[in-house]
Amino acid sequence: ERRLRPDASHSPWSHAMIFEGRRIDGRHWLIEADVDWAKAQFRNGVQENPADKYFDEKQYPFLAVLDFGLDKAAISRLLAAALSLVAERTRYSYGGILSTWLALQSKTLDRRSPLHGDRRAFCSSLVQFLYLDAGIRFAPDVDPAHVTPEHISQCRAPHSRWVLDSLSQAGVPV
Questions:
Q1: Across-strand partners of 29?
Q2: Rounded to 5 degrees, what angle do the CA atoms 14, 43, 84 make?
Q3: What percent of the chain has a predicted confidence (pLDDT) above 70?
Q4: How far apart are CA 43 and CA 34, in angstroms?
Q5: Is there a contact between 56 and 115 (Cβ–Cβ < 8 Å)?
Q6: Helix 72-87, helix 123-132: angle, nearest 10
Q7: What is the band of 171 on the pLDDT scale with cuts at 50, 70, 90?
Q8: Which of 29, 37, 117, 134 has its CB 3.0 to 4.6 Å from that of 74, i.e. a possible disulfide?
Q9: Beta-carbon-side half-sphere exposure of residue 47 (alpha carbons within 13 Å)
Q10: How far apart are CA 133 and CA 9, in angstroms?
């Protein structure tokens, strides 16, 4: 994603997800497209996980929460669509990752490749597709299937942003 940053530095953002909220167990949950090996179980695609999966500052030194101020109806639609993808066991888009990497190299992010499978997503493309219903495009000149975590970070739509940067003493730009 260096090609997307003004100073060509590596992006600190490598993943994107949707916060689902606090559930009856008292934990905050999120919905993400991920490939996960947990307790000898392989999960590949859109899934629900407790937010505390990311509470390790050494493994995840940068975290950001973006709040686009959606109303309750838009949040309900977004979460209903996300939960449908979980229930349908929507697969992770390996072809989408490859296609987006190739589009970054060739500067063709505005065009979708046939490598993007139907009903598959990688993390930031999932988040972008879910937010389209609310009228938010993180990168208007980029095909939604090619949206990266760096695009989401640079989004110009009005939002509140909270950032945890546990490496700020190291001078890493965010």
A1: 21, 50
A2: 90
A3: 89
A4: 8
A5: no
A6: 140
A7: very low
A8: 134
A9: 17
A10: 32
This model's pTM is above 0.70: yes
Please compute the mean of the pLDDT values over residues 43-72 and round it to a whole number.
90
User: Which amino acid would we find at residue 6?
Assistant: P
Asked if pLDDT for residue 14 goes beyond 70, the answer is yes
Q: For residue 24, which phi and psi values (nearest 5 degrees)? A: -60, -25
H runs (alpha helix) in the chain: 72-87, 94-106, 123-132, 149-153
Q: What is the pLDDT of residues 96-128, one digit of tens each?
A: 889 898 988 888 898 877 666 567 889 999 999
**11 within 8 A of 124, measured Cβ to Cβ:** no
Angle at 93 between CA 130 and CA 99, to 5 degrees: 100
Least Cα distance to 152 among 122, 127, 172, 132 occurs for: 127
